[in-house]
Amino acid sequence: QLQLQESGPGLVKPSETLSLTCSVSGDSISSGSFYWGWIRQTPGKGLEWILSMYYTGNGYHNPSLKSRVTFSVDTSTNQFSLRLSSVTAADTAVYYCASGHSVQDGLPEFWGQGTLVTVSS
Amino acid sequence: EIVLTQSPATLSLSPGERATLSCRASQSVSSYLAWYQQKPGQAPRLLIYDTSNRATGIPDRFSGSGSGTDFTLIISSLEPEDFAVYYCQQRSNWPFTFGPGTTVEIK
């Protein structure tokens, strides 16, 4: 059973870069058994996939965000991260890290508890 | 991008009643449709995947059906803990998308 936990600043200034980390327990992030994703939720747009990636580097970025998004994995700490550049107020959201079995792409069975990120000066 | 619409937006029912929630896709998603439950302050929880398969630990009062563009989630007899927001989600085409949700509230 995977457990996921997000961490990162709750407040980011406009035009800066949002950085979040997801700590994984219950399996090795490099096992290949799971994909790793970020999903955000806003009152206006609802739930939105940001990216879904495998340890190998294959995966998907949401076209609406692709140019601003970076995904990385740290096997030494069993964490994966999201960086979203040039943020605006529209990026204010609850950000979830999520995961599912690699044979069921796009089915997030495991979620972190979510972290609210506010973009404001 | 595949757009999912859910109806009704809000369902007001009493415990013990049957809830029927609908999800419609803007194009076929085959059977790759899932349902999630979300309570305030919590992450969504997977209930049903690939139209009709219950996730681990989900009681059998939850059932899903449909294919192509039209899908239904039925809660056969509402328990107090079932009052929540329900989302459908497709994983047929990237970007995977969610519906706007149906709130099941206590009447």
Name the features:
heterodimer, A: 121 residues, mainly beta, seven-stranded mixed sheet, four-stranded antiparallel sheet, globular, B: 107 residues
Would you give an account of this structure?
The complex is a heterodimer of chains A (121) and B (107). Chain A has 121 residues and is mostly beta strands. Chain A has strands at 3-7, 11-12, 18-25, 34-42, 46-53, 59-61, 69-74, 79-84, 93-101, 110-111, 115-119. Chain A is built from no helices and 11 strands. In chain A, 35% of the residues are buried. Chain B is mainly β and 107 residues long. Helix content of chain B is 0%, strand content 50%. Chain B has strands spanning 4-7, 10-13, 19-25, 33-38, 45-49, 53-54, 62-67, 70-75, 85-90, 97-98, 102-106. Chain B is globular, with a radius of gyration of 13 Å. The chains are: A mainly beta (121), B mainly beta (107). The interface between A and B is medium-sized, with 21 and 20 residues.
Largest sheet of chain A: 7 strands, mixed
Main interface by residue count: A-B, 21 and 20 residues
Tell me the number of helical segments of chain A per DSSP (H or I, 4 or more residues long): 0
Order of helices and strands of chain B: EEEEEEEEEEE
Beta-strand residue percentage of chain B: over 45%
Low confidence ranges of chain B = none
Portion of residues in beta strands of chain A equals over 45%
Radius of gyration of chain A: 13 Å
Find the structural class of chain B using helix and strand composition: mainly beta
**Biggest beta-sheet profile of chain B:** 7 strands, mixed
| Alpha-beta classification of chain A | mainly beta
Mean pLDDT of chain A: 94
How much helical structure, as a percent, in the residues of chain B?
Answer: under 10%
Q: What is the helix tally of chain B?
A: 0
Q: Label the overall shape of chain B.
A: globular
Q: Quick one: overall form of chain A? A: globular
| N-end to C-end Cα span of chain A | 39 Å
Oligomer: heterodimer
